Amino acid sequence: MRPSHSKNALHSLNYCMGESLMTQENYNYRTSPLLLRNQFDGADIWKIPLIPKAEFSEADFENLRLIGFDRTKLENNNLLERMVHFFLYDYKFERVWKSPDSDIEKLRRYRAVLSPDFSIYTEMTPVLQLYNVFRNRWCGAYFASKGMRVVPTVSWGEENTFDFCFMGIPKGSTVAVSTYMVSAHGNHADQKEFFLKGYREMMRRLEPQRIICYNEPFPEMEGNIIFVDYELSSWKYQNDDYVPSKYLPYILGEKPLPKDSGIVIKSGYIPSNPSAHKGMGSAHGGRWTPAKPDDERFVGKPGEIKQSQTGGRGGGYHRETKIGEGGKAIIERHHSVHGNPAKHTDPHDHIIDWSKGFPDLEPPINYPDGAPVFKKYGGLKTMDDMITFVPDNRSEEQRLEDNRFKTISEFKWSVQCGAEIEFVWKDKTFGIFSKLQKTPDSPIQILITQVLIDNPEATEGWYDTPDEALEYVVDGERLRDIITRVEVTDRTI
Known about the structure:
Layout: H1 2-20, H2 24-30, H3 33-36, E1 66-68, E2 83-85, H4 95-98, H5 104-107, E3 112-114, H6 126-145, E4 150-151, E5 174-178, H7 192-206, E6 210-214, E7 225-228, H8 248-251, E8 305-309, E9 318-323, E10 329-335, E11 348-353, E12 360-361, E13 365-366, H9 383-386, E14 387-389, H10 396-403, H11 408-416, E15 420-425, E16 428-437, E17 444-450, E18 461-463, H12 466-469, E19 473-474, E20 477-478, H13 479-482, E21 487-491
Parallel strand pairs: 1-2, 2-3, 3-4, 5-6, 6-7, 8-14
Antiparallel strand pairs: 8-9, 9-10, 10-11, 11-12, 11-13, 15-16, 15-21, 16-17, 17-18, 19-20
């Protein structure tokens, strides 16, 4: 036992000596202001820094435009009359928290700076929401200590965040909010009720002198609102020498990636507005809403089965859509082979996944030996009660216009939702099947092929991403160049 005791004693001695002989490097780290973040006083229990109330004249807000932090330049003197905003994805300005001095000389030249809008999504755990409020106020206080006029940016989550999300802002300040991500856009409904609840609480607690509203305000918003047009503050209207990234056409899917370029564009949903700014509210961007009448079949009363008929050449086909709990579709049956009997049986089913906030059709479930009965959801309704016929009184021209892809981004979104698409170009009919396997052991891919012909396999193209699929050649033309002009006779979403 004695050797063991001696060893432990020596270890303890070394440990104590190590503490007493702290290196300068260790000391500097432990006392670093960027570690402690205690430079600014806060009156609340969390010591959230106070952003000093900045003084402005009414002239400061005449014809006001903003400029995104990611567009500011030290060498550009053309837009210094603007205020700098951070209504951007967090990664674009994370450095003002990690290395706050790196942009001071650039930012202090502008008329004013809004405090960084670190995200407070409703899905976030509360401790992260609190942390991001602290970071917002700390950066704002730091900018002010360097001689800048700072406008506090205010965001909130659900009511549980009201205990801290308005702290660090003096009463009577000019503040800034954004309605962009809580307004209706794409297939997402507005989050007005959520926004107004927090807005009214902000008005009660802060009594702001002015409210800079980036994007169109809701009619119900009260106060001295300074409306800043979202579009006019974008890079398109900077009237300077700004040149978009040379990679932007590839990111947006406007150009194919050059072969052997070494450029890697991550796949995923690209919003129809590539400069879309983020903000508060749901990280999913609000509740999904049908973009066209045909999509209304995905919502209804729990337990019902909606029956509908597609349009298209040849009269279309019959569908049954089963509505589950929460009024959202859970499975859909298609009585069609979609012109591709090698990959679909008549009928076949699609499970519908809502985990991303919108209906995402999974790969087809085929029944080569006959399909099971399409049973109702739950067990309380009679057959007569559960069947709902979805009327479609639109003309063929209206159906075709609803189905038409207005933008490349809309096409890519539809494909990523698992859509099955039929289109006609120069009297040839093609099918796009978003989630199929070439063989049972192959990964899920996108198949494009000409249909209603004897040998469709000869025209097949298999792709991993919507961007790659847009390179499919139709009669000598890339799909990318014609997708907004083709006649879309059917699309499941």
